[in-house]
């Protein structure tokens, strides 16, 4: 697998409006924030940011609202960071997906309220516009449109079946939200990032329990990685070897917004460069 090939992240790009508060605001209260900002967000969008910062050739595939606000806050930033967006699909007359985020300076926690009134999700037809020969890795954000994403994964699987080993594409998925439809994305993938919320939704109470239980429920030779906040990370490699890692928190937590996206992107970057899961 050539390390110079591109990594494609498929999912959401939205705007984040962020308020940093002393503590999470009480209901029906009126207070000033410590600072505020608005910035590009969305899981796949954040994945691309981290990959680009690490030196990867990253591309985002998402739907875009065709608006001046979105172009100013999101598209220009993607361009500035060298993230490719040529295959993104623009929709006229749609509102911008918006996340309102409260960050607590006291605890570092983040609380998010998301809105997407009418911007469509990606379809397998949209994905068909991508030239698969330029990618070494395609990462999917698990979204409500799981049936369409499953078709995208199937199209890569068909590509891999026709391709020589060095041209095969690694497929990864991030299963975060507690939805049964996420299970449609498990077949034929190489790497699964099993989010804590989804793992709990499936009845698991720790990262170790989650990786073993999920592999037992859905057998396969895929890598599964489950971060569990301050409790650390558990993983199984493709051969079923168990690995675990503690956490090393910094002295000061600035905020936790995008922490999971950063973790996924860091893993993808290292694995795409040929590093072992242990490394």
Automatic annotation (TrEMBL):
Residues 5-278 form the Carbohydrate kinase PfkB domain. It comes from the Eukaryota. InterPro entries: Ketohexokinase-related (IPR052562), KHK (IPR034093), PfkB_dom (IPR011611), Ribokinase-like (IPR029056). Residues 1-23 form the signal peptide. The keyword Signal applies. GO terms for biological process: fructose metabolic process. It holds the Pfam family PfkB. Keywords: Kinase, Signal, Transferase. GO terms for molecular function: ketohexokinase activity. This is Ketohexokinase.
